[in-house]
Design a protein that fits this description.
By secondary structure, this protein is an all-alpha fold. It has one domain: lambda repressor-like DNA-binding domains (434 Repressor (Amino-terminal Domain), Orthogonal Bundle). 62% of the residues lie in helices and 0% in strands. The longest helix is centred in the C-terminal third of the chain and has 11 residues, at 46-56.
Length: 69
């Protein structure tokens, strides 16, 4: 499981809730896009990694798997 899915599940947040919260922050994303990221069917752009890392309050490097902290 990648860190995106791991963090989302650890928080107890559904894909739908995460999509809604990101949309309220001004970031347009769909459930299917997030699912594709979690299942590694699509790779987010750097800007998206940064926004997702901010959402989880982690570094983009941690989220991508380049760092363990």
């Amino acid at each position: 499981m990648n860190r995106l899915a791991e963090l989302r599940k650890k928080r107890g947040v559904s894909l739908g809730k995460m999509t809604n919260e990101l949309t309220r922050r001004g970031f347009k994303i769909t459930n299917s896009t997030l699912s594709n990221y979690e299942n590694e069917k699509r790779e987010p752009k750097l800007e998206t990694w940064e926004l997702l890392a901010d959402y989880f309050n982690v570094t983009p490097q941690y989220l991508v798997g380049w760092a363990d902290e």
